[in-house]
Amino acid sequence: MLIAAGMIFTIMKNKPDKAKSENLTSTEIDNYFNSYVEKRKIVQQLVLVEQRVNEIEVREYSFKLKNKSVSNAVLEIRAPVTYNYYLDFKDDWSFLFVNGVLRIVAPEIKVKEPAIDTRAMKTNIMGGYMILDEAGKMEEFKTEFYDILKTRAASPDYIANIVEDARLSLAIFIDTWVKSELRGLNSQPVNSILIKFKNEEKFPLLGFSVATGKL
């Protein structure tokens, strides 16, 4: 392996087959691998929830002649997709510790780009008689599929589905890493942790109990 100026250059050689070598015939395969670092950046993010969803997206086309449907095609894409919801440490945070209660206003939950398991992706065309160029439309559908998932991942419905898990995940993180620092600053123990995300109007009625480790 050779490494130089952001480039990794690897040469892998497979040894000739012994049995074939004895018969004076052999096949040698050389594999060459090049990797160029295109971009590197420092990220300061805390992933709170990882959610894997079997996404099913359906699109229907209809071909009409004189306002009468003569053909229709239903296109379907199925794929397992992983969504990672996180907080950015560079965003604004607020901490207030009073009477054993630690109140935290955390940044708004964000989502990383969807990770589609392309190996398990399946497509299906139902109906149609080649009138609608079903194969071509499926290719268009596949190119749009990622943007559809990206929009859906950040939708209020998807965020609402994971927000309580995110709140618990953050509370456990705070309980593990921040609470010990507070002990050095204040002799009063942390009894509970209340977390409100920036886009929420008020704190939840019940907080994370340090004693039980639950919300």
List the keywords.
2 domains, single chain, flat, 4 helices, five-stranded antiparallel β-sheet, 25% helix, 215 residues, four-stranded mixed β-sheet, alpha+beta
Description of the structure:
This protein folds into two domains: 2-36, no CATH class; 45-209, no CATH class. It has four helices and twelve strands, in the order E-E-H-E-E-E-E-E-E-E-E-H-H-H-E-E. It has helices spanning 18-22, 134-153, 156-177, 179-185, and strands at 2-4, 7-13, 30-36, 45-65, 68-88, 94-98, 101-106, 110-111, 115-116, 122-127, 192-197, 208-209. A hairpin with a 2-residue loop joins strand 6 and strand 7. The radius of gyration is 27 Å and the shape is flat. The model has no long low-confidence stretch (mean pLDDT 84).
Short description:
With 215 residues, this protein is an alpha+beta fold. It has 4 helices and 12 strands, in the order ββαββββββββαααββ. The chain folds into 2 domains: 35 residues, no CATH class; 165 residues, no CATH class.
Number of helices: 4
Task: Outline the biggest β-sheet.
Answer: 5 strands, antiparallel
Number of domains: 2
Estimate what percentage of residues fall within beta strands. 35-45%
Shape field: flat
Radius of gyration: 27 Å
> How many strand elements?
12
End-to-end Cα distance, whole Å, is 51 Å
- The whole-number mean of residue pLDDT values reads 84
Query: What level of helicity do the residues show?
Result: 25-40%
User: Quaternary state, please?
Assistant: single chain
Uncertain segments of ≥5 residues (pLDDT<50)?
Answer: none
Q: How do the helices and strands follow one another from N- to C-terminus?
A: EEHEEEEEEEEHHHEE
> Structural class, from secondary structure content?
alpha+beta
